[in-house]
Amino acid sequence: MNAEVEPPDVASIAAETVDGTAAESVAIGAALVVFGATGDLAHRKLYPALASMAVKGQLPHRLVVVGVGRTQIDDDDFDAEVHNTIAKAAPDHAPEWAEALDRRHVRFRYVAGSIDDPETFSRLATVLAEADKDLGAAGNRLYYLATIPELFEVAARGLAGAGLSSEEPGTFRRIVVEKPFGHDLPSAIELNDELHKCFAEHQIYRIDHYLAKETVQNILALRFTNAIFEPLWNRRYVDHVQITVAEDLGVEHRGTFYEKAGALRDIVQNHVMQVLALTAMEPPPSFAADPVRDEKVKLLRSVRPFDPERLKRDVVRGQYDAGEVNGVPVPGYCEEEGVASDSTTETYLAMRIEIDNWRWAGVPFYVRTGKRLPKRVTEVTLRYHAVPYLPLPRGAADSVEPNELVLRIQPDEGIMLLFAAKVPGSPFRVKTVPLTFSYKEAFDEDPPEAYERVLLDAFLGDATLFIREDEVLQSWRIVQPLIDAFARGEVPLYRYAAGTWGPEEANELMHDSDDTWRCP
Ligand code: BG6
């Protein structure tokens, strides 16, 4: 492992954006090295994010973007490719974005070569030295691994081998690692170990793009900057919690990847565990990186290991058949490109999770996620206990449901509290009604794309929204018994038609209560 070097104190400044408002920015020069520079992720997410950040004045004072890829192109081709991508990503913004990149003096360099060839890294070292000397990159480097996961370790080794990983005093060298981080607990341990041979933990930024969503961060704001919610956030008042991550999309062109992942690795191990941790953790002493991550890890450690004897009752797996989503006929999972015709990969997963601590003992957390469900919606619902006794005649209170607090992560971002109110007129009747907060209505601006937050925080050296080593291992610890049981065929794979809310059997998860899934 590298000698632990204290991260440099990188100043952030309030920069003037084009519309005159202040924005966080990075008051230094830096190079952003994108491995997989001609690939899908870089084009879809990173380059548009950079352009939008340029408009907001959030890029480092001097930025050199160095693409690394196997495609044989030169600096000018790469520059043109990025500008084309940006133009296509948001035609309405294209001129403004291109102008902002120029005005901020963003420069593009390209290194053609294979990541497993040490020569590529020698050439990269030369380009970076030039960027420092001639273009103001100041020795600061953000290495972004937008490659297939198999190349994460290889890239880290290449960087260390070329002397590009250790931090000189007053500079930073950070490596941003995309998901999936490993494919099970042993491989995640091994990947951590390999990365640590080249980079110290404080240099490693593991991404979970859910953390960069404004509404996911708002879980912290709601819980810990308001006095009224926290007292009601525990077993005394909460009957159970539901977390839904539903997608109407199928596996798109990612069938080959998804075959090896399934819903468990693709969504539950990372996004669901992060949302669960933020929803259930104890208050941190501050919102800085380690205090927040300490509390998340503590919570993840409290998640009760799945009981092998109860797996069939606590976990429901499903796979979609052909059906109709939003009125359009769609094929079944096994007919998708890159998927085996007899695949047993799950595209739906529902489970009951127990948390063994004083706050949550006895409060089940029901989690479900799936592809080809009726709509795209992510939300967290706290369902409260019913009142102990209703002082109303039967019929006057038939439609009174227990209170619910719904945190809508996406789309229609907002918060809803369901409570009972008197129906106007006589006789005295009550009905459940919503009290709604909508982000769009309350704030007159669009939330930034998750990847803008990711890049800005990585430049600023704020790791709060990135996953620490022990966190990633804890979440793999939780799902590992399921990985094993699925591989042994111990948990049945139920069918559901595309466009429905998953297999019927998921309703039985709540077998020991009258609970039902919320219909989002
Ligand atoms: C990714 C998964 O991590 O998250 C995809 O690999 C999934 O399969 C995506 O579609 C969902 O992200 P979002 O931001 O659209 O909810």
Could you give the topology of this structure?
Blueprint: E1 12-16, E2 22-35, H1 40-56, E3 60-69, H2 75-89, H3 94-103, E4 107-112, H4 118-135, E5 141-145, H5 152-161, E6 173-177, H6 185-198, E7 204-207, H7 214-224, E8 238-246, H8 255-280, H9 289-302, H10 311-314, E9 315-321, E10 323-325, E11 328-330, E12 348-353, E13 365-370, E14 377-384, E15 404-410, E16 414-423, E17 429-438, H11 439-442, H12 450-460, E18 466-467, H13 469-487, E19 493-497
Bound molecules: 6-O-phosphono-beta-D-glucopyranose (BG6).
Short note summarizing the structure:
It is built from 13 helices and 19 strands. It is an alpha/beta fold and 520 residues long.
Structure characterization notes:
The chain is globular. α2 (75-89) packs antiparallel against α3 (94-103) and α8 crosses α9. It folds into 2 domains: 12-207, 3-Layer(aba) Sandwich (Rossmann fold), CATH 3.40.50.720; 213-383 and 466-509, Dihydrodipicolinate Reductase, domain 2, CATH 3.30.360.10. The model is unreliable at 1-23 (pLDDT under 50). The strands form 3 sheets. The protein has a 9-stranded mixed beta sheet. Strands 1, 2, 3, 4, 5, 6, 7 and 18 form an 8-stranded mixed beta sheet that branches. The chain has 520 residues and is an alpha/beta fold. It contains 13 helices and 19 strands. It binds 6-O-phosphono-beta-D-glucopyranose. Residues 179, 247, 266, 378 line the site of 6-O-phosphono-beta-D-glucopyranose.
Shape label: globular
Proportion of helical residues: 25-40%
Radius of gyration: 25 Å
Ligands bound, unique: 6-O-phosphono-beta-D-glucopyranose
Q: What CATH architecture of the largest domain do you see?
A: 2-Layer Sandwich
State the separation between the terminal residues, measured CA to CA: 47 Å
Instruction: Kindly give the count of domains.
Output: 2
Widest sheet, order of strands: 17-16-15-14-8-13-12-9-19
What is the class of the largest domain in the CATH system? Answer: Alpha Beta
The helix tally amounts to 13
Largest sheet: 9 strands, mixed
Helix vs. strand class: alpha/beta
Poorly predicted runs are 1-23
Count of extended strands: 19
